[in-house]
C-alpha cells in the first residue's frame, strides 16, 4: 500500500468511526458531535466538502429534525449552501425571516413556533420550530447554520450552546474565501 493510500485508508476509518450515540443526554451528545466534527474534518482543506460533512453529521446526530444546513453570505443575501432535507429557499435577504434576522443581529435565534415569528419564510410547511446560529470568523459574518424541526419547541438553550460550539469548531476548518 502506498503512503497516500495508507493516509486515505486511515482517514476513511476515522470518518466511519465517528459515529454518534443519539440516545445520549444532550450535553454528552453535543460533546460527541464536536469530537466527531474534528475527527471528520481533520486534514481536509476543501471548504465545500467540510460544510457538507458537518451538515451530514448534524443530520445523523440530531433527532426530530427535518432540515439542517448552511446559508452563506453573498452581499446582502444568504444563499443556500450544503444541506440535508427537502429542497429549500435559495436566497434570503439579511434581516428577513429567522435566518436573515439571526444574521443581521449576529446572534443565535431559538424559535419555538415559527408560525408566530414575524416575517417567517416558510421553505417547508412542515417545519414548526427552528434554531439559527450565525457563523462569524474573526467578527466577520460568513453565513448561518439553520436547523428546523416538525415539532413545536424542539430546541432549547442546550441546543443553542451545543450548536454555537459546533459552529465555533467548524469555522477554522473552512476557508471561507474559497466558497
Give the SSE layout.
Blueprint: H1 3-16, H2 26-41, H3 47-61, E1 67-74, E2 77-85, E3 91-93, H4 97-105, E4 109-111, E5 129-137, E6 140-149, H5 157-170
Antiparallel strand pairs: 1-2, 1-6, 2-3, 4-5, 5-6
Helix pairs in contact: 2-3, 2-5
List keywords for this structure.
6 strands; alpha+beta; disordered N terminus; 179 residues; 6-stranded antiparallel beta sheet; single chain; Beta-Lactamase; globular
Summarize the structure.
The protein has helices at residues 3-16, 26-41, 47-61, 97-105, 157-170; strands spanning 67-74, 77-85, 91-93, 109-111, 129-137, 140-149. It has 179 residues and is α+β, with helices and mostly antiparallel strands. The protein has a six-stranded antiparallel sheet with strand order 3-2-1-6-5-4, with helices on both faces.
CATH top level is: Alpha Beta
- Find the structural class using helix and strand composition: alpha+beta
The CATH topology is what?
Beta-Lactamase
Strand content: 15-25%
Number of helices: 5
H/E topology pattern: HHHEEEHEEEH
Inertia-based shape: globular
Radius of gyration from the alpha-carbon trace, in angstroms:
16 Å
CATH superfamily: GAF domain
Strand order of the largest sheet: 3-2-1-6-5-4
End-to-end Cα distance, whole Å, is 34 Å
CATH architecture: 2-Layer Sandwich
Mean pLDDT: 90
Task: Describe the model.
This protein has 179 residues and is α+β, with helices and mostly antiparallel strands. The chain has one domain: GAF domain (Beta-Lactamase, 2-Layer Sandwich). Helices cover 38% and strands 23% of the residues. It has 5 helices and 6 strands. A 6-stranded antiparallel β-sheet has the order 3-2-1-6-5-4, with helices on both faces. Helix 2 (26-41) runs parallel beside helix 5. The protein starts with a helix and ends in a 9-residue tail after the last helix. Mean pLDDT is 90; it is low at 1-17.
Amino acid at each position: 500500500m502506498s503512503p497516500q493510500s495508507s493516509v486515505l485508508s486511515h482517514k476513511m476509518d476515522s470518518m466511519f468511526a465517528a459515529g454518534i450515540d443519539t440516545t445520549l443526554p444532550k450535553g454528552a451528545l453535543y460533546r460527541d458531535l464536536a469530537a466527531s466534527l474534528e475527527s471528520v474534518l481533520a486534514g481536509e482543506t476543501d471548504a465545500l466538502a467540510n460544510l457538507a460533512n458537518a451538515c451530514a453529521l448534524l443530520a445523523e446526530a440530531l433527532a426530530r429534525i427535518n432540515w439542517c444546513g448552511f446559508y452563506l453570505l453573498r452581499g446582502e443575501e444568504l444563499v443556500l449552501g450544503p444541506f440535508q432535507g427537502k429542497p429549500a429557499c435559495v436566497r434570503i435577504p439579511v434581516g428577513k425571516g429567522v435566518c436573515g434576522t439571526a444574521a443581521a443581529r449576529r446572534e443565535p435565534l431559538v424559535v419555538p413556533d415559527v408560525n408566530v415569528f414575524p416575517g417567517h419564510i416558510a421553505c417547508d410547511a412542515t417545519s414548526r420550530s427552528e434554531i439559527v446560529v450565525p457563523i462569524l470568523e474573526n467578527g466577520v459574518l460568513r453565513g448561518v447554520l439553520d436547523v428546523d424541526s416538525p415539532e413545536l419547541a424542539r430546541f432549547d438553550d442546550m441546543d443553542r450552546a451545543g450548536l454555537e460550539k459546533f459552529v465555533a469548531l467548524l469555522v477554522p476548518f473552512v476557508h471561507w474565501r474559497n466558497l
